[in-house]
């Protein structure tokens, strides 16, 4: 991630903080706008033109989306477009992240991150479902309809809105990658760090509590767990927080030993 994008992301979060009470409709509108921009190269180029000022970009947003999105969604989109990004792809990713953060704020009473992780595990365990949601051959609307059938009435409206968006515009990402990324954004917006913990057997409540205390002290913020039981790890624990991996599993140590023996 370039320094320009890092600064732009910080600016969008500041704009979100100034928005006031968040509404899920604003998140849905913003994510819908991201899909339009992602599918329209000329619009994407114009919105990321560093020679254009905020007034010009606001006029462009109003001309394209006027009457289609609320003032709140338009304001956030203009704020994102007015920042300097390292690339147009970073702008799209940043605007998408902004929409997910609005959804998280608007649904503070729902376990959105946990629902996203749970759906990720469901998809990973069903190759046909993974293909249906992730294949390049299927159109966006059938994929969104499938999400509605799978999650409607079972997950929070915020989770459904986020997943519907992701499957409609993957931008080269795998479905699992998108779900985990969105879950991490939701957790971050709520002040948590997500730790994916993989073990051969479920950890006890006491073991999880000890692990949480240790990881929270290391991360400097509260920890939310995404726990995965995978007999392939044999024993021990594998923990991933963001890009950092702490692999103390028996499978990992056996693999290291095989590599050393192989020379």
TrEMBL record:
Q: Per its UniProt record, what Pfam families does this chain match? A: OSCP (PF00213)
Q: How the protein sits in the membrane? A: Peripheral membrane protein
Kindly state which keywords UniProt assigns to this record, in alphabetical order: ATP synthesis, Cell membrane, CF(1), Hydrogen ion transport, Ion transport, Membrane, Transport
The record's subcellular locations are: Cell membrane; Membrane
Q: What InterPro entries is this protein classified in? A: ATPase_OSCP/d_CS, ATPase_OSCP/dsu
Instruction: Outline what the protein does.
Output: F(1)F(0) ATP synthase produces ATP from ADP in the presence of a proton or sodium gradient. F-type ATPases consist of two structural domains, F(1) containing the extramembraneous catalytic core and F(0) containing the membrane proton channel, linked together by a central stalk and a peripheral stalk. During catalysis, ATP synthesis in the catalytic domain of F(1) is coupled via a rotary mechanism of the central stalk subunits to proton translocation.
The family annotation for this protein states: Belongs to the ATPase delta chain family.
What is this protein called in UniProt? ATP synthase subunit delta
Q: Which organism is it from?
A: Agromyces soli
Q: What is the primary gene name for this protein?
A: atpH
